[in-house]
Design goal:
309 residues, alpha/beta, Arc Repressor Mutant, subunit A, D-Maltodextrin-Binding Protein, domain 2, 10 helices, 11 strands, 43% helix
């Protein structure tokens, strides 16, 4: 019996993605091509590998056995790529990265620009995606790296899931911004107790920061508006519709009329991190090069490097 490792990889993708169609997207193949690979692999082993009796394709016991072997082969290939990168000093190949919009424009773009000079063989694919959907894509092979944000008081993603590992990129302090035409002009956070706020959605880092500020200064924020994207938040603030808590990175390139209160220590900061799949063999050279470039881009913007634990 001779097994084609490429077909084993297809089988592994079907297991991870839970079906032929999603596996085809990750592998950049047509569903028909994936089905053909599976059929040929079944002929090679002489028994069914995919349980087609259900609505979503699952693997038979034989299929699961071969998929586990495929995972081990992938780990060996990852180790080979790591050794080659150490030998040549360059990481090459395709890498898929997801990030939230501010991280894409302020961190990922300059990081990829720097990598294009030092690692010309890198083939990046950028997706603007965040939250649980991005982490699902990471776990199931659709992405190689996800740039995330979380409030510094919250646990890191790798503390919540053992199949992921997070590399800190930088700490980004929160700032309190307000309309320039408010009268009398607020001078401290306490002066904003009765003013409207533009808040982040529940569970977001900036929403946590606003709740922390409210507790510290003893008021309930009037959350008149709810927005996720910082350009939208800042547009509402400049229009006089509310104050807001935003990270310093969101103010890069902001118009000069943006009014920021003096530093509010209790506001704290968010942490920006790069999340990847955990592997016994360690991180892939491609993602390691990206993490280094993201950290350098953060430092160039004046963000605070994360001290080693």
């Amino acid at each position: 019996m001779e097994l084609d490792p490429r077909r084993l990889r297809v089988l592994r993708a079907v297991e991870l993605r839970g079906g032929v169609v999603d596996a085809a997207k990750v592998l950049h193949l047509t569903p028909s091509a994936v089905s053909q690979h599976l059929a040929q692999l079944e002929r090679e082993v002489g028994q069914p590998l995919v349980d087609r009796s259900r609505r979503r394709a699952g693997l038979t016991p034989a299929g699961k056995l071969l998929a586990a072997r495929a995972e081990r082969i992938e780990q060996e290939l990852a180790e080979a790529r790591r050794e080659l990168a150490e030998l040549t000093g360059r990481a090459t190949g395709p890498v898929a990265i997801a990030a939230f919009s501010t991280a894409v424009s302020q961190l990922l773009v300059p990081a990829l620009g720097a990598l294009a000079r030092t690692h010309p063989g890198l083939e990046p694919r950028v997706v603007e995606l965040e939250g649980p959907e991005a982490l699902r894509e990471l776990r199931t092979g659709g992405l190689d790296l996800v740039v995330v944000e979380y409030d510094a008081d919250d646990p890191a993603p790798d503390q919540q899931a053992r199949d992921l590992t997070a590399a800190p990129v930088a700490d980004d302090e929160y700032r309190v911004v307000m309309p320039a035409d408010w009268t009398p002009p607020p001078r401290t956070v306490r002066d904003l107790a009765d003013r409207p706020w533009v808040a982040g959605p529940p569970g977001t880092a900036c929403r946590h920061a606003l709740e922390r500020i409210s507790r510290e200064y003893g008021f309930t924020a009037r959350r008149m508006h709810t927005c996720r994207e910082f350009p939208t938040v800042l547009a509402l603030v400049r229009s006089g519709l509310g104050a807001a808590v935003v990270p310093a990175l969101a103010l890069a390139g902001a118009p000069p009329e943006t009014v920021t209160l003096p530093t509010v220590p209790v506001a704290g900061h968010r942490r920006i991190a790069a999340v990847r799949r955990a592997s016994p063999a360690g991180p892939e050279p491609l993602t390691s090069a990206l993490v280094d470039a993201l950290q350098e881009a953060a430092v160039s913007l004046g963000l605070t490097p994360v001290a080693p634990a």
